[in-house]
Design a protein that fits this description.
Blueprint: E1 3-5, H1 8-13, E2 28-37, E3 40-48, E4 64-71, E5 75-84, E6 102-106, E7 109-116, E8 126-132, E9 140-141, E10 152-158, E11 164-170, E12 173-179, E13 186-192, E14 201-209, E15 212-221, E16 225-233, E17 241-247, E18 258-262, E19 265-272, E20 283-289, E21 315-316, E22 323-325, E23 328-331, E24 340-343, E25 350-357, E26 365-372, E27 378-383, E28 390-395, E29 401-411, E30 419-427, E31 437-443
Antiparallel strand pairs: 1-29, 2-3, 3-4, 4-5, 6-7, 7-8, 8-9, 10-11, 11-12, 12-13, 14-15, 15-16, 16-17, 18-19, 19-20, 21-31, 22-25, 23-24, 25-30, 26-29, 26-31, 27-28, 27-30
Length: 444
């Protein structure tokens, strides 16, 4: 039996439930720093915003920070505001200059580092820190900035011996300083990192892999723009040897990244601006990354599919496809949350979405968010490929128009277990140029 359900609540809530690219669309997020704490994945981005009316914003309008965690296998939970620009004890008010942050755990405490414009105008940016017993706060903010640090984009490294280092950027240089045990002061002075290529650099993110130190960073080529590059060293403070690019420039915008190992896979987090169409309003993304046997990093190509393995009760954003034929994607219409849809679906067209975790077979039904301007067609969900085992069939029935959205559901025809690739196949009369517009699927 097929039931028709109109679910306004789902329409509102599901705007945050992405783990394909971009990760979230309910606000603009950039400069994502990913961390794994107690086997859970967190991301600490900056936030872009449209300048309020009457406010003369700088090049980027960035009023504060949010934090996110990956829930289930595919859902990003927004934990809300971490720090607003006007909550910085030493910061200039309404500066809209809260650029890339970082968060690191030492012992049983979490230390959140961030740049802001100081009200004493002693530097372009200063770097502050807050402390919490939780990765999502609340943080107790140090009343003054860290003396001796003037720059942006703090990136932290906690070495195997417990020594912490803070990397930061300023103009055409990257710098590093050793932190004292209290994580709130530097031990000595910051020093310029030697061995990096010429040109503008920012966004340093350090990591250690198989005994070698990797310093990854944004590097601007005059003819290409922002790329993500890396250098290696036998010492966290350098000198470093440039190794090449991790990611090419995307769409003539900025890029800023982090790298983390989660569930035994390396992930590159970065940003792009495809949701807004404006390179000052960015959205964080993620793709898998690999090391070669010799320790070099394989170049990462941005994908729509991104990371994550949707589980039962996770949204499957099928428009972030792994493969598509006789269909296309474009921005969703009507009153749907920002994102994309599969559209212009033709007879025997299909969209494939890899890595869906059906668990132990507990799912009994599947929902679909659809819009349809005709009453003649259907779409199927199959396993593996477009002629694979049929597990569900939906009618493509009139919903009021191609931008009038409804949520429909149907029973799964059999119990499915484990991680599977799914394929949605569209059926209609031959020659029809549209079957249905499809936004997402949901196993329950």
């Amino acid at each position: 039996m097929k039931n028709l359900i109109i679910t306004l609540f789902a329409c509102i809530v599901l705007q945050t439930l992405y783990a394909q690219n971009p990760l979230v669309t309910h606000l603009y997020t950039a400069d994502p720093t990913a961390r794994v704490f107690d086997n859970k994945l967190y991301v600490y981005p900056s936030c872009d915003a449209i300048p309020p009316k009457g406010v003369k914003a700088p090049r980027f309008c960035m009023p504060g920070y949010h934090s996110f965690s990956l829930e289930n296998g595919n859902t990003w939970k927004d934990h809300g505001s971490v720090l607003d620009q006007n909550e910085v004890p030493w910061g200039k008010k309404n500066s809209y200059s809260m650029w890339a942050p970082d968060c690191i755990k030492k012992g049983d405490k979490y230390y959140y580092y961030y740049p802001a414009q100081p009200k004493d105008e002693s530097a372009f940016r200063r770097i502050g820190v807050g402390v919490s017993k939780s990765p999502t706060g609340p943080f107790k903010w140090k009343k003054s900035y860290i003396k001796g640090l003037d720059g942006i984009d703090p990136g932290l490294l906690l070495d195997d011996d417990g020594t912490a280092y803070i990397f930061y950027a300023g103009g055409k240089t990257l710098k590093v300083a050793k932190l004292k045990d209290n994580m709130k002061e530097i031990d000595g002075n910051g020093m310029k990192i030697e061995g990096l290529p010429a040109g503008y650099v920012e966004g340093p993110f350090p990591l250690k892999h198989k005994g070698k130190y990797y310093l990854t960073f944004a590097h601007v080529f005059p003819q290409e723009g922002y790329t993500i590059a890396y250098a290696t060293s036998n010492n966290p403070m350098g000198p470093y040897q440039y190794q090449g690019k991790i990611m090419d420039n995307i769409g003539n915008g900025t890029n800023h990244h982090s790298i983390v190992k989660y569930n035994n896979k390396w992930i590159l987090f970065y940003h792009w601006w495809e949701i807004s169409g404006y390179n000052k309003l960015r959205s964080m993304r993620a793709d898998y990354m690999e090391f070669n046997k010799d320790g070099t990093i394989k170049k990462v190509k941005p994908t729509l599919r991104g990371i994550g393995t949707p589980k039962v009760n996770d949204t499957i954003q099928v428009d972030r496809y792994s493969e598509i034929s006789s269909a296309k994607t474009e921005f969703v219409g009507g009153n749907e949350p920002k994102g994309w849809m599969v559209c212009d679906t033709r007879m025997m067209g299909y969209v494939k979405f890899n890595r869906v975790d059906f668990g132990n077979g507990e799912a009994t039904k599947i929902k679909a968010r659809v819009a349809c301007g005709q009453r003649n067609g259907s779409f199927e969900v199959r396993l593996g490929h477009f002629k694979g085992k049929l597990i569900a069939t939906f009618p493509a029935e009139f919903t009021g128009g191609w931008n009038q959205w409804e949520t429909i559901e149907t029973e799964l025809t059999e119990k499915v277990k484990g991680v599977q690739n799914i394929v949605v196949v569209f059926k209609s009369d031959w020659g029809a140029d549209k079957v249905v517009n499809l936004n997402w699927l949901l196993l329950q």
